[in-house]
Here is the input.
Amino acid sequence: MRFFLPFFIIFIFSTLPTYAASTTDSSEGQTEIQILTKEDAIKALQGIQGEVISVNPAEIPGLFRVAMKMQGKIIPIYLDESGSYLFTGNVIRIKDRKNLTEAHYQKLNPVDTASIPLEDALVLGNPDASQKIIVFTDPHCPYCTKLHKVLHEAIKANPDLVFYTKLIPLKQSSKKITQTILCNKSMEQLEMAFSGQALPEPDCESDTIEKNMALAQKLGIRGTPALILPNGQISSGYRQLEELLTLIDENRMDSK
Here is the structure.
């Protein structure tokens, strides 16, 4: 959604110092398991601007995922077990087409929810609830309509949730409708639009739509519905009630 690199471009750093990666003890007659430690990764990546934050085994056998801080972002890259080869790009799990690299990038770089302006947002639920979810929606998006019904069910199931809905008219037909809703800051009009009812022409001018569209683009949101969960993780697409509640619970903001 927001993290794209050429798929598996391989860089061979022949000028970098070579070394032997760490190994674990093994039983007699068995191959030793080679492990890449954080110290190994730091040595391998000497000369590359950035800071190694962590090293973990990747989903691909023989590769290790290195979280590296570069230019204010933490980027997942991959080293082989010997520390001789660096891989960058999107790792896709074929069985479900999930972009694992993008998922790791999002976990490493959560959205600062406090930085998102909510003055224009339509509120559903208790504003004092501890778990705040920001929803990007389009009045003419069929899956947004379905999800909105689920949001009503969610606040009944868990009163400690509040949804802040920000409108981004990705469909051309939604632009005037969105402007009308924003002029009146009306949840009722949004729900009328979701049900297919006609709305009056907008009676105000503002740049809120442009600001919301720019914000969505900055966050890497390219479609609706999209949720920013309490801990800053982004989740796209429609969810049924139980799936949504589980997703929120797994990405809740703990009370301090």
User: Anything to note?
Assistant: Helices lie at 38-44, 100-108, 142-157, 175-184, 187-194, 208-219, 241-250. The mean pLDDT is 88. The longest strand covers residues 63-70.
